[in-house]
């Protein structure tokens, strides 16, 4: 087990559930220190409370609205104060804003504040600390950045823009800071289970989704965590400025058979 002196200090946004929680758990299992945040207050974040109980000296939680730049700025200040440094930033917070291209202006603005601007501003605030540590930024986007479906705008548009953010952070802040993106596909989370359950036959909806993946299953949150752990390590030191698709081969399919 690493000591607090040797452990890295890792910021992870959106740690109250789903992929963010799994990423936090992966780094904690690795012996690192995780400073997490999510929109939910601690009393409404049971997963965060559980990790606080299990890792009282290595997990810290803040309630942060990442659509508010002042909240992000204060979070980074508070996070750096805890241990005097930041080594890794996993910019994960976001949500599906599936309103269609004819969405209201308020939906458009909320989507870009949450799913694009927050990632840029978090990186901007963490930059001074990351320069000192020769740190790593990992931006979590989506396979919707590469191909999408009707009704998924404006979400997919912001996710596409994150590909360019990863590139710009790499070429303008390197070599002191290395930046990589991850584009997960269908990951088995509580949120996606809600989507399955919204169908008349939730089991059938899950089975149909699984069949659309060449690997024969949908992804697990811990697999995203494992990829984050690798990409933040020295073993991935030559990987920068690119976004890795992690979707079980879903995007390799030109056309679904049922749509042919």
TrEMBL record:
Pfam families: adh_short_C2. The keyword Oxidoreductase applies. It is an enzyme of class 1 (oxidoreductase). Keywords: Oxidoreductase. The keyword Nucleotide-binding does not apply. Its EC number is 1.1.1.100. GO terms for molecular function: 3-oxoacyl-[acyl-carrier-protein] reductase (NADPH) activity. This is 3-oxoacyl-[acyl-carrier protein] reductase. It comes from Buttiauxella agrestis ATCC 33320.
């Amino acid at each position: 087990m690493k000591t607090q002196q040797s452990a890295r200090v890792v910021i992870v946004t959106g740690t109250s559930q789903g992929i963010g929680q799994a990423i936090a758990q992966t780094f904690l299992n690795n012996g690192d220190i995780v400073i997490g945040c999510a929109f939910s207050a601690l009393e409404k974040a049971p997963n965060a409370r559980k990790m606080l109980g299990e890792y009282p000296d290595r997990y810290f939680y803040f309630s942060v609205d990442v659509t508010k730049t002042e909240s992000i700025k204060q979070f980074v200040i508070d996070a750096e104060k805890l241990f005097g440094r930041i080594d890794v930033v996993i910019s994960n917070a976001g949500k599906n804003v599936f309103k269609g291209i004819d969405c209201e202006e308020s939906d458009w603005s909320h989507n870009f504040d949450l799913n694009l601007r927050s990632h840029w501003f978090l990186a901007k605030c963490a930059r001074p600390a990351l320069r000192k540590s020769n740190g790593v930024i990992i931006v979590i986007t989506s396979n919707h950045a590469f191909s999408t479906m009707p009704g998924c705008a404006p979400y997919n548009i912001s996710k596409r823009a994150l590909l360019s953010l990863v590139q710009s952070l790499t070429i303008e802040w390197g070599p002191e800071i290395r930046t990589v993106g991850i584009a997960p596909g269908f990951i088995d989370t509580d949120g996606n289970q809600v989507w399955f359950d919204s169908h008349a036959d939730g089991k059938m909806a899950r089975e149909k989704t699984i069949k659309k993946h060449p690997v024969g299953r949908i992804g697990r949150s811990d697999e995203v965590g494992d990829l984050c752990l690798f990409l933040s390590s020295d073993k991935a030191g030559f990987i920068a400025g690119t976004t890795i698709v992690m979707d079980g081969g879903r995007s390799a399919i030109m056309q679904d058979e049922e749509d042919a």
